[in-house]
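Researcher: Can you fold this with 3-isopropylmalic acid in place?
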Amino acid sequence: MRTHKIAAIPGDGIGTEVIAAGLEVLAACAKRDGGFVLDVTHFDWGSDYYKTHGVMMPANGVAAMRAYDAIYFGAVGAPGVPDHVSLWGLRLAICQGLDQYANVRPTRVLPGIESPLRHVNGGELDWVIVRENSEGEYSGQGGRVHRGLPEEVGTEVAIFTRTGVTRIMRFAFETARARPRKFLTIVTKSNAQRHGMVMWDEIAAEVAAEFPDVTSDKMLVDAMTMRMTLHPQSLDTIVATNLHADILSDLAAALAGSLGIAPTANLNPERKTPSMFEPIHGSAFDIAGKGIANPIGTFWTGVMMLEHLGERDAAARLMGAIERVTADKALHTPDLGGVATTRQVTDAMLRALGWNQ
Ligand code: IPM
Ligand code: MG
């Protein structure tokens, strides 16, 4: 029997609701498979922890994660705690501290779900966005001086390193190579940003030469938003900087029907440290505690986690169950225009997995 040690960090808001649902479904998946178990440890880190302890997690928090095979993360961000504090104190601290430099965001219009784009209902929109996850605009470099005075200055410095760009570019080409179309679109803004972004273009060309079987093209990020909207079928795998991919992935999630469905993986591809899996929707305090959060993003995130753990059969079975559940409009939560609850969707998943107890 294979045992995978999972650290669960539900975090804030609907994070606790969707992670609870996700763990139920993953446990059913493991039982159904029969070949592995998930040994789950819960961590109560987040904004409530901050209100009691003055920090989002203990000082040894990142180090403690190294004992696990994967991290299943809900969401972070709560009223009363500044967003930059909650974010840098937990999620970014883990991503950067464990060098999870590749953020992977698959986007697809699942069965039963409507894209806001006319004529798009499946195969026309099937993307994987690869987001640089360790530096760039999120490097945390900058500062403020002369606070409150008219001459106050604030800087926010984007840092791009040859090491950082080369490794994300190789990962993106490998991701593209593993998909049927073997096609990568490289996004920058190298017309206006003439240093780091031009370096991206140069490194992209160097790495492209290592992957003669992968076709690639280049887009400026502003034009990319139009291409995603007007010609979604012309795209497959996409690589972009930390901030550009953050923005493009929200657009992607909206075009695929709902932010409630979108999953993400924060990977250390070399597996020197545990990777972290989370839905991308955030803590959504407006609906927290109502039992109507869409758990599908967390289930799909679970698929990515099982794949990473090497449980390919269970991952495929879970994805199949997700698609059967989304195909039934009676099981759509309010973000998809339905009236189903988190509980109802979770129960339907357990039934679809053939495990209902
Ligand atoms: C995401 C989110 C985060 C990010 C927020 C919560 C800071 O938008 O995962 O896309 O920008 O990284
Ligand atoms: Mg985002």
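Model: Folded with 3-isopropylmalic acid in place. The chain has two domains: 1-101+266-357, 115-256.
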